Every structure is written in C-alpha cells, then in structure tokens.
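Final report, closing paragraph on structural work. Over the funding period we assembled a curated collection of sequence-structure pairs, and we close with a single example.
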Amino acid sequence: MAEIIDAWMQLPNRDYLLDAMFDSLRRWPTNWKSLALENPGITHEEALDTFRTQGVSRAIASAWWGLAGPMISNDEVAAAVRAHPDQVVGVASVDISRPMEAVRELRRCVKEFGFKGLRVLPWLWGLPPDDRRYYPLYAECIELDITFCLQVGHAGPMRPSEPGRPIPYLDNVAHEFPELRIVGGHIGFPWVSEMISLMMKHPNVYVDTSAYKASRFPQELVSYMRGPGKHKVMFGTNYPMLTPAECLAGIEALDLGEDVLPFYLAGNARRAFKLDA
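Its predicted structure, as stored:
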C-alpha cells in the first residue's frame, strides 16, 4: 500500500489510558482496553513501532488537555516530534476556559515545536465550536497558518453529544472564519449528512474517519468519498482506541479506486495540514 498518514491519534500515557473519563471506552473490546489492562505504561517508541509495522508513514499526534489540566502535555508530544521528526506531526491542546493563556500556549507550540494544528473537543468542554471562547484561537490559527481540529458527532465518553453536531455550530464557524482549515474527527455520526453538506459548502472543511473501521463507514460517506469528496476525507485511527491495522482492514471493499485511495490515505491530510510547507 502507498503512503499512509494517520490524521487523528494520541501517543498515550498511563494517566490517559486509565482515566475514569474513558470508562465507557474501556467497556468495548478495543486496543484501548487491551493496553489499559496489559501495557498502561506504553512508551512513545512502542506505540510508534505499531504504526511502523502496520504501514503508517506519519502520525498526526495530538496533546490532550482535560478539565483538570494536561493529560498528554504539549511538551510530551514535542518530545516525540523531536525524536521522530519524519514520523510524528504535533497538534496542540489548550485550556479554552483561559483564552489568552490558550493563545500564548498555542503560539509557543507552533513557534518552538513546529506543531501543525490545534485540537479542541467540544464534548469535553460542553461548549459548541461557535462559543466565544474558541474565537481568539481561530484567529490565531489563521495567523499561524495551522489547522483547527475538533470532534464531530456523538461523544464516546459519557458526556452530552450536542456540542458535536455540525449544523448549526460548525457551519457558523466556517462562515465567520472562511480562511480557517477545519478537520472534523470521527466522521460525524449520526450527523454524517450534515458533515457532508458542510464539506460541500465550505472549501476549508474536511473530515477524518478516525474511531471507525472501514466496515462501519456509512454508505453515504463512502459515496461522497468516491465522488465530490475525493479531496475532503482522510484516514485516521483515534489510536489508542483502534490500531492502524484494524482501521485499514476492509479498505479494498470500499472500492475507492486508484484515483481516490491515495488522497484518502495521505494526500488530503498533506493538504489539510500543509505538511509539505
């Protein structure tokens, strides 16, 4: 298989894998549960070795800021980028309840560490993406020429899902910040048709398929990928929840064709995150 870029993953640590927030995720028989039980102290090197052996060329790895503070710190991700500059791309995480501190931290991550994006999870904060607390960060993302990532669709952890609904919340953001490159993670289910409509409407809105195996892709998304969404949908795992091998299994059955598959596996992530800049 050709080049593969994972657009949405985390390099986990013990605190992240075992946090009570993710009890619902550990109920499922996933890689997350296996790591939590068997190897909660997994190192970056061990995690990245999984990606190498399973054919992923680059991993776009995000820090993870919880309500009580960093769970996977920006500095941890920066260390992985320094150790593996050809394999790891950094994405920052910040505390949006303190907007100016968040802007300064984002600026530090980009200017000092070379991070290519910022990720905020609306379900975590209980705030849809058109809340005023995001707006200084959107402006800074545009000034820094980096990509904004957010979860779209229902929340896996036991938090309300409404902040992840694409319309009207993300639609408002894309209208007010048309220069902002936006990547929605996790397909957008059960609002997949809303997410597709946003991608067709807004040139800078993309989605990844992280947290979903190919066998679970909604047919409307596959049809969009084969047609007008050729340049809008990108591969992702949501590791440690799923491994690359699990997410790549069954890709052939989607019948994407040689004119679509390379964009899905790598080309769209390269463009959305400006990895060649």
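The first strand starts at residue 5 and ends at 9. The CA atoms of residues 148 and 182 lie 5 Å apart. We thank the funder for supporting this effort.
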